[in-house]
Design a protein that fits this description.
Elements: E1 8-14, H1 20-34, E2 41-47, H2 59-67, E3 93-96, H3 99-108, H4 112-116, E4 118-120, H5 126-131, H6 144-170
Parallel strand pairs: 1-2, 1-3, 3-4
Helix pairs in contact: 1-6, 2-6
């Protein structure tokens, strides 16, 4: 199926789907819109755990996005959900926040095609790759400084993700 028949789909995955993955989801939505790809790319998020099911975005996630002047592109409507194997069918790229999430997604993958869609968010940040620091700590255990760190790590990866998706759409 061609990109004109269905949008390219990105799913960001963390543990509970209330901090890292929705933050990346919202930053990516904004970035794809800014890059003129918003009508060709859909972004959503999920968690590997069921413990936060139905919960809204963590208030500190919203606070860090507001501090940096980002528009609300779905914060209020977001409810945590769990990633399930069948979600690979609706995802062209599955972005794991940290190594344990990538490992869990690898175990959920039903075949090599599913597994091939999984990448770490920070694998798109050249500085993180060069430093060998591809994981992303869970800010939930910290305060504003940890949420700022998560924000900066995601922001550093966003341009690479946008270019990866642009290349896939143009290829």
């Amino acid at each position: 199926m061609s990109a004109s028949e269905h949008p390219y789909r990105v799913t960001v995955v963390c543990h509970g789907n209330i901090c890292r993955s929705p933050m990346a989801e919202f930053l990516l939505r904004e970035a794809f819109d800014d890059a003129g790809l918003g009508d060709r790319v859909e972004v959503d998020s999920a968690g590997t755990s069921a413990e936060e099911l139905g919960n809204p975005v963590h208030p500190r996630t919203v606070a860090v996005l507001r501090r940096h002047g980002h528009p609300d592109v779905g914060w209020g409507e977001h409810r945590a959900r769990q990633f399930r194997a069948e979600m690979f069918d609706a995802s062209d790229l599955v972005l794991a926040a940290d190594h344990p999430h990538a490992d869990r997604l690898g175990r959920l993958a039903r075949d090599e095609d599913d597994a091939a869609t999984v990448r770490l968010v920070r694998s798109f940040d050249p500085a993180a790759v060069a430093a060998g620091e591809l994981g992303m700590d869970d800010p939930w255990y910290g305060g504003d400084a940890e949420y700022e760190q998560t924000y900066e790590e995601i922001r550093a990866a966003v341009p690479g993700i946008v270019e990866h998706v642009r290349a896939a759409l143009d290829g």
